[in-house]
């Protein structure tokens, strides 16, 4: 089976990023690559990514730091907001709770954690073991077309999975939106 035959593809998902994140200090988890949040909020953003090459690829504007979300090296209550734009799909599910705890610790009281991600169906052994999502991202700065891919094995997730995880950590869910195969959740500390 070639790589194309192994892909489970979700096509043409549209995401609109508006100027909706409040605060002067925004931490963007996984802010490398297209650096969508950094592109929209510029110098207000601290973009972290464990991969230096991904941060080098991201647009200028935010402060870029090589760092793993499982071990945030910031003081508690440092950020007004934290974002994760299609990043948690790349972090092992067994590490999600640790990441949520780290986010909770660095957020200020009443700070918001805004999470965008996708529904990844359970892998049923059908041979399509690579999950790919194609996105059209509409930002105030420009239109981006991109795709993200991960293994489907042990990566099943949906909006309820993240809602329950956030509540377990102590977040309140103040907004949840689902559109086709993608979703956005706004948590408040």
TrEMBL record:
- Report the residue ranges that make up the Methyltransferase type domain in this protein: 27-115
What keywords are annotated for this sequence in UniProt?
Answer: Ubiquinone
Q: Does the keyword rRNA processing apply?
A: no
Q: What is this protein called?
A: Ubiquinone/menaquinone biosynthesis C-methylase UbiE
């Amino acid at each position: 089976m070639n790589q194309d035959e192994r892909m489970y593809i979700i096509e043409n998902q549209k995401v609109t990023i508006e100027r909706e994140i409040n605060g002067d200090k925004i931490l963007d988890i996984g802010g490398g690559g297209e650096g969508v949040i950094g592109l929209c909020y510029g110098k207000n953003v601290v973009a972290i990514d464990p991969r230096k090459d991904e941060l080098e690829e991201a647009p200028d504007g935010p402060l870029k730091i090589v760092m793993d979300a499982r071990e945030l090296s910031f003081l508690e209550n440092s950020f007004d907001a934290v974002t994760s734009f299609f990043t948690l799909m790349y972090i092992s599910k067994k590490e999600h709770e640790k990441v949520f705890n780290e986010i909770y610790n660095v957020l200020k009281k009443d700070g918001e954690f805004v999470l965008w991600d996708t529904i990844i169906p359970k892998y049923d052994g059908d041979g399509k073991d690579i999950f790919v999502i194609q996105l059209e991202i509409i930002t105030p700065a420009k239109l981006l077309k991109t795709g993200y891919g991960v293994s489907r094995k042990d990566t099943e997730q949906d909006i309820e999975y993240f809602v329950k995880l956030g509540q377990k950590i102590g977040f309140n869910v103040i907004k949840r939106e689902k559109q086709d195969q993608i979703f956005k959740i706004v948590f408040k500390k």
